[in-house]
Write a structure and sequence with these properties.
With 497 residues, this protein is α/β, with parallel strands linked by helices. Helix content is 45%, strand content 12%. The strands form 4 sheets. Strands 2-1-3-4-5 form a 5-stranded parallel beta sheet, with helices on both faces. The protein has a 5-stranded parallel beta sheet with strand order 7-8-11-6-12. It is elongated and about 80 Å long. The protein binds adenosine-5'-triphosphate and magnesium ion.
Length: 497
């Protein structure tokens, strides 16, 4: 097991020795002669462990440890001490150092410490991913009046058993609201079961909702519980409820009225105790008027209506959401925290967001992946957002006309060390989360280069049957460096673009 180590010491010999010990064990190493250089390296690279000398001229090891922990709380730092500095070493441990070692403790001890640090990092990572999977939950964020009112309604309705109908355009957070109601309700220890009525074919939805007996239809080899049963004691979230057929609506209505269901292919009645929360992005009153939605079902579902406003009507939430998504994705991709340049915030604030918070979230994910610097810049945004011109038309009734007339933000000057040929590269495959470039679109150099690089790497891997070592050799890159780029570009075997 080997990883990456950074050695910080003002003495060249010590740096060389510790680097060599690690290199001989297969580790990749970097070194810095002082705290400031170390911090600069940490901004761009990830290390499994940092060795830091305690006594250095200028900023000492304790000072360095403090700065590192402030910025990267999870970074493993081992403090190197001369003899007789136990008291300060104890102080270092209190400040969150992983361990401390005397400089002459011997090669084995150093390697064991590094391996432990690596293991801890792997465990912490695994833990984080698991926690995220288990909870998979996000807060409903925002500081606008609209969001405050939603939070207040969630708080009021959650403790009751009242049915809730959540309405709003796509991507406004309807599912998040439903989940928040469940999480704050007395049913929170019981299941939250989601059914997307639009995604299930008409002939299957009945069995999906109510379950089926063996032989009820072709392929029903086992009796199956439906979502109503699965949600017993908890909450059933009927998403896109406006898309259910009238026949299914009639059955749902009965389940709501009587609290009883029958599995498909059975006439045995089952009692269920389910709280129903429904959501739709359709104008449901219109659906009723057009006869596509049963009026009685509409009234049953719509005991408490909650309307999620579109993002363009609560622009004061944009920067808060964007910052929170930046942090989320930096954590997810395991990269140091990035910040948003003010011009990015301006650009985001101007865009009409037809896809609402979902679109903003996707945009930020892409920008975090695209950005090379610690700062996310305007160039990292997609062309639509930079120019304030969405590809998808905004929804009816919005009032962003004046906004789209605002001057498009010009990408800042950015001429880097690139041979001119790259700037002429035709539009390549889009970045992992990038919107496809439009024909004839002129890409900023920065973006063209990233796409070019990604494509080159993908092709090299393809040629070498995804053997990373061989592809790295062909590209003239270190293997670890190529691994890093694969992570950054989200490339994985099987990608065909
Ligand atoms: N207020 C918010 N705070 C944080 N994240 C949000 C907020 N609103 C929406 N999101 C995020 O935006 C994405 C879309 O939200 P969600 O799936 O709840 O939207 P929806 O209204 O159900 O959309 P659709 O109608 O397309 O199903 C999710 O990733 C969600 O976490
Ligand atoms: Mg939804």
């Amino acid at each position: 097991m080997s990883g990456r180590v950074l050695v910080v010491d003002d003495e060249k010999n010590i740096r060389a020795t510790i680097e060599m010990i690690h290199r001989n064990a297969g580790w990749e190493t970097r070194s810095a002669a002082g705290v400031d250089d170390a911090l600069a390296l940490l901004q761009d690279e990830r290390f499994d462990v940092v060795y830091m000398d305690l006594a250095m001229p200028g900023r000492d090891g304790i000072d360095g440890l403090r700065s590192i922990k402030e910025r990267y709380p999870d970074q493993n730092v081992v403090i190197l001490t001369g003899q007789g500095s136990i008291e300060r070493a104890v102080e270092a441990l209190k400040l969150g150092a992983f361990d401390f070692l005397e400089k002459d403790c011997g090669k084995e001890k150093i390697l064991v410490t590094s391996r432990n640090a690596l293991e801890r990092r792997a465990l912490a990572e695994e833990n984080r991913i698991l926690r995220k999977k288990i909870s998979g939950r996000r807060e409903f964020l925002g500081k606008s009046g609209g969001v405050a009112s939603i939070l207040e309604q969630i708080g009021r309705v959650a403790p009751t058993n009242a049915r809730v109908l959540i309405m709003g355009e796509s991507g406004t957070g309807k599912e998040l609201i439903a989940q928040a109601i469940h999480d704050r309700s007395p049913r929170k220890e019981r299941p939250f079961v989601k059914v997307n009525c639009a995604a299930i074919p008409e002939e299957l939805i009945e069995a999906e909702l109510f379950g089926s007996e063996k032989g009820a239809y072709t392929g029903a080899v086992e009796p199956r519980k439906g979502k109503f049963e699965a949600a017993d004691g908890g909450t059933l979230f009927l998403d896109e409820v406006g898309d259910m057929s009238l026949r299914v609506q009639t059955k749902v209505l009965r389940a709501l009225q009587e609290g009883e269901i029958e599995r498909v292919g059975s006439n045995k009645t089952l009692r269920v105790d389910v709280r129903v929360i429904a959501a739709t992005n359709k104008d449901i009153a219109k659906e009723v008027a057009a006869g596509r939605m049963r009026e009685d079902l509409y009234y049953r579902l719509n005991v408490v209506p909650i309307v999620a406003p579109p993002l363009r009507d609560r622009r004061e939430d944009i920067s808060l959401l964007a910052e929170s998504f930046v942090n989320e994705f930096c954590e997810e991709y395991g990269i140091p925290r990035k910040t948003l340049d003010w011009s990015v915030v301006e650009c985001l604030a101007r865009y009409p967001w037809p896809g609402n918070v979902r679109e903003l979230r996707n945009q930020i994910e892409r920008a975090v992946i695209m950005s090379r610097e610690k700062m996310v810049c305007v160039q990292d945004l997609s062309a639509e957002v930079r120019e304030g011109r969405p590809v998808v038309a905004a929804h009816e009734g919005d009032h962003h006309g004046a906004l789209s007339a605002a001057p498009a933000v010009k990408p800042g000057p950015e001429v880097r060390d690139l041979p001119p040929v790259i700037a002429q590269v035709p539009v390549m495959a889009p970045g992992p989360a990038g919107a496809p470039a439009l024909p004839g679109e002129v890409l900023p150099l920065h973006e063209a280069r990233r796409r070019f690089e990604r494509e080159m790497i993908r092709e090299a891997l393809e040629r070498n049957s995804w053997n990373v070592s061989r592809a790295a050799e062909e590209l003239g890159l270190e293997r670890t460096n190529l691994h890093k780029k694969l992570r950054v570009y989200g490339l994985a075997k099987g990608d065909k673009e």
